[in-house]
Amino acid sequence: MKIDLSDLNAFVEVSRAGGFREAARVGGNSASFLSEAVRRLETRLGVRLLNRTTRSVVPTEAGKVLLQRLGPALTEVELALDVVNGFRDRPAGMLRLNVPVSAARLVLPAIVPPFLATYPDIRLEVVTEESFVDVLAAGCDAGIRYDERLEQDMIAVPIGPRIQRFATAASPAYLRRNGRPQHPGDLLAHACLLGRFSSGVMTTPWEFERGGEVVRVDPTGPLIVRVGGGTDLAVDAAIAGTGVIYLFEDWLRPHFTSGALEPILEPWWQRFSGPFLYYPGRRLVPAPLRAFIDFLKSPEARI
């Protein structure tokens, strides 16, 4: 049975993107081209691979099995073709990164523009996701996470600031009404703005450290947001005087500068190591990813 490789790629792209329009936006092909390719593949195989509704496109059981087997195989094909990149004057192709929203907001803005200017033949796709994922299964070349969430078989390269802090803050109006906490334990009497990961796990307890003493508190409050997509809402609520926020210092710093938020409990802010770019060590490194890794080691990428 002769199957066009582009049809298989179209099926994988649509499955991973969850729709024809989404896959077209990411991959550069039209939605009609992708739809025809998948329909052609289903006809040749004699089985439906995707269930299509007006709201979503999801693989059938047959499609799930095919997708599971195709992903690694197509990755190997891409790697084989990528060898040709070694004969080019400069690397080209697509680089896909899976990163948390905090990295997309606080780390990548200083790195991406000069990287793309240095390598104009590379296209970069950034997928934001809070949970730790298998980057290959997710169709990405590499991810960005913090060291406590890296698996042992991953190669990790430092990216962005090497030391960060979690900060607590509130608006001047909130502090005038409710007083300023002097100890982390005082937060139990305050309205705090909380987060929840997509897994359902809360971002509590909040951790503080001073002089070797670590204090963990489980505050409560009127607002819970989804970590990542809802974080800006929590920041806006803090600025409006709704409660105390606990977030990356770098995320809140512009609001400290403007006076919209005031730092609280700063001597207790806990320091932690910065994020890492990670990728599987069991595969060849595609040329665009290799270029990105080399760029991270250059002076242009130092933050």
How does this model look, in words?
- The structure is a single chain.
- This protein is of the alpha/beta class.
- It folds into 3 domains: 5-83, Arc Repressor Mutant, subunit A, CATH 1.10.10.10; 90-157 and 275-301, Periplasmic binding protein-like II (D-Maltodextrin-Binding Protein, domain 2, 3-Layer(aba) Sandwich), CATH 3.40.190.10; 163-272, D-Maltodextrin-Binding Protein, domain 2 (3-Layer(aba) Sandwich), CATH 3.40.190.290.
- It is built from 10 helices and 15 strands.
- The protein has helices at residues 5-17, 20-27, 31-45, 61-82, 101-106, 112-118, 172-178, 231-239, 249-258, 287-296, and strands at residues 50-52, 57-59, 93-99, 122-128, 142-145, 154-158, 163-170, 192-196, 206-210, 213-217, 223-226, 244-248, 262-264, 271-273, 276-280.
- Strands 7, 8, 11, 12, 13 and 14 form a 6-stranded mixed sheet that branches. A 5-stranded mixed sheet has the order 4-3-5-15-6. It has a two-stranded antiparallel ribbon with strand order 1-2.
- A hairpin with a 2-residue loop joins strand 9 and strand 10 (213-217).
- Helix 1 (5-17) packs across helix 2, helix 1 (5-17) packs across helix 3 and helix 1 crosses helix 4.
- The longest helix has 22 residues, at 61-82.
- The chain is elongated, with a radius of gyration of 23 Å.
